[in-house]
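Sample intake sheet
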Amino acid sequence: MPTIDLMGGKLQIYQRGTSRFWQARTSVGGKQLQFSTKQERLDQARQVAEDWYLTLHGKYRAGVLDTGPTFQKAAEQFLKEYAVITEGERSPKWTQGHAIRLRLHLVPFFGNLVLNKVTPGKVQEYRVHRMTAYNDPNPESKSLHQPKGKPPARSTLHDEIVTLRMVLKTAIRHGWLEHLPDLSPPYKTQGKIAHRPWFSPEEYKALYEAARAYAKEPFHDYYKWNAEQVYDFVLFMANTGLRPDEAFNLEHRDVTIANDDDTGQEILEIEVRGKRGVGYGKSMPGAVRVYRRLLARPKPARGETRRERQRRNKEGGEVPPPPVQELPQLTDLLFPGNHIKLFNNLLDRTNLKFDRDGKPRTAYSLRHTYICMRLMEGADIYQVAKNCRTSVEMIEKHYAVHLKNTLDASAINVVKPKSRKKAKAASRPSRLSL
């Protein structure tokens, strides 16, 4: 269908080949704009297009017409760039998290906004929206679960604002936005310094004793190998300070038993691959015996299953030979499975799942236990940070602040000596007492 001119040729309406709706286009301020009338009849489309044209020119004369790329365009550009630029430096799950946050929450709220309209006030409206509309079903969600009955956690909102900031920075790099708006939360006071959940020496002893008892007598013989792995995992983590993902990525070729020149004891030298890339760490002497047990423990071999045994008894056949057991090879993982259920059940049985402040303990708590125990024994905080591939600032903020052993009473309880003149005046009787 041909293009129809309106308003003296300054406005055109037309139909695309596959669309049943009429489209409109015009030029305002040297920029061509397009608009869908959402109308199928020509007379109705003509009226809607003329109203749109007059509204645009009225805003242009008043200086309030906003034109330019929208937040949705910047979000699409960010996702296109981020996955390519950070390939190999960010985990696919982290990249996928940005896409999920944009699809579920950020684009539905900011998507149609022109980028210069993403103001600090609009960001605050987003925070209020997320804290009040969490019970409403999200049409963008692909999950079949019911909406949560509690507002999103502070860390969840923080991650969403981080994604928002990265999209706006992408817009700045492409010249679509002049400056980054203030995204900091208002009314924020100084946050509390919260310690990471860890096991005190008494709690840690109760944990590994319970793990050892279960490894000796598991509920079922089928779980024996897994129970022994969990017991060694608890001891290994508390004697090395590794992150859980670092421990699960560890292969036998990454671990070496060596003699420490300064102490003369056997320790483990570990080549770590995890959150911070490739790094190195040295263990406590207690990790050596654990690692030797891991080396001597045969890998689990698949035997005849219950269904296969029932089929053999029904159809007849010879009993298969027992599976051949093999020791771990250099390229095998130290901990092939994460054993989350066994570890959590162990915490529940010992009543250690939650600390005094109600924070749940996880496998990460064993790393925190290692750091706290090293500080309690008087280890150098810089060497502990270097061995754990973290910073001194993080250790001082989350660990040293709540350990009484890091306070030196002799340096705190200092009393300034009195001068001889003041001492004489204090010992001389006053005239009122004569």
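Comment: The chain has three domains: 4-62, 71-173, 201-300+327-407. The longest strand covers residues 266-274.
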